[in-house]
Amino acid sequence: MSGAADLLRQIHPIFVKPDGKIGSSAFRPSKKDNGVLSVYDGRQMTPVQALTHYTTHLGLQSRGVRVVTQDECEGLNLVVVYDGVPFPAHAGIDFNRLSKSQQQDAADDLRDFAEARGWAAEQP
Amino acid sequence: MQPEPFLTPKLTGGRFKGGGLPLEVMGDFAVLSKLLTAVARQRFLDANPDRTRVKRGFAQGFSLVLTEIRSGSVEASIGCEFPGRLFAEPERLEHLTRSKEAVVGAMRAAFEGRDVSPYLTKKQLGYFAGFGRSLKDGEAIEFRETPEAPPVRFTKELRRKLVSGRGEEFDEKVEWYCGVHELDHERRTCKIKTLDGAKYEDVHFPHKFHETLNDAAHAYPKGTKVRIEAVAAFESDGKFKAVKKLEEVEILDPRDVRLQIRELKLLREGWLDGEDAPPPSPAGLDWLESAFEAGFEYELPLPYVFPTPDGDVQFEWDGGNGSLIVEIDLERKSADWRAKQAGERRRGTFDLSAAEGWAELSDRVRAEQTSGHVQGNEADRKI
Questions:
Q1: Which residues pair with B335 in a beta bridge?
Q2: Is B112 exposed, middle or buried (CB count within 10 Å of its CB: 0-12, 13-18, 19+)?
Q3: Looking at the whole model, is its pTM more than 0.90?
Q4: A60·B274 Cβ contact <8 A
């Protein structure tokens, strides 16, 4: 696979306020994620397909899809991993190179990038 | 004469954390006094099977009075006075003491899932329809039959058990955080949907709430929520029946911290990405709500409240040319803060287990607001 990808992040409804504000913790991996934030590889699925897959196939809650790019991640010293597990379009943004405070800053920046773009796909 | 020491209930949680006794609760104690008197009357008759009525002036011969309120949690000392007497009347005091044992014994039996009928009659259980009605979630009144006995916690749930023991419908004060999605102006009823998705229809409202509810219904599509206090009727099995009286309606700021914390309370284990993401702990959220209410200066802009993937909570302020994020460790009651403005980042910590930490947080928000990095939420308040 070639070319820098759009990375599609599902946003849980609890991270979205009525005025559209999104919490930066929506862009931070948990300890149980082993420091890797799950995203969809935008070269393999459109945002609408990713939203349908996440909510219908996986049965998880999402308010919609926001986009960050591989270049933005790399600019923050984050590594993008196209692991294809547990499904082919799965990818991860690896935060493990960063200290805790750097991880917090990187999540804030990813949120700002994604917020500026608006929704790529949204629940009706 | 000094009132005879009789009962020392301890009030814990919620509104009692401030150390004072809310006046609203005084009405509950008035009902408790009536219950104790009614049971004492019965005990007198039980002890005197040859009598069909109690002595003339039996109930007038004593009076239960509040003698002291000790703060910390609130401890209310209730004494027994014998008007016009120099000394306590042993017989009346004895029946009152047996009455206290029966009432607290019934609470203990209900708590332990035992039959309460050896302690109180169905009619006497009816007094619990009034006593404890003002208790809110997380609040309790601890009773002991004797100073040495372990406490039994009288809560909203325990009250419900006792009242439903009569097999009749009962009233309970409810507090809903909800949206108002439909209003019938003719019938003066509304339809509401609570945060957990429960829907209530035909909620009748008095005229004084018409304008507020109308505003809330218009703003429903924008996600506006209200806080409603009402007296509701429940079937004996605890099933909701109807709203009997709407007592308070308050349109909430979208950043109302009580509202946002209640939304976090709905998260369940594994809420995020299908992983084993823990939700913030209910006890931690209760602490955060009361500590925020007590410690954060009310005129400052309110934060957005978000969960973190590891079960903690994040406050965020923005709207200016920067942002302030405070990440709160619910277990340690401490926080890391970070501010960002034009690429410059600053950070620090707060100890939120103490009032000083909340004062420092307030100062930080004020400083960021004064510098134009974050803005107030006045615009949000216009619905």
A1: B328, B350
A2: exposed
A3: no
A4: yes
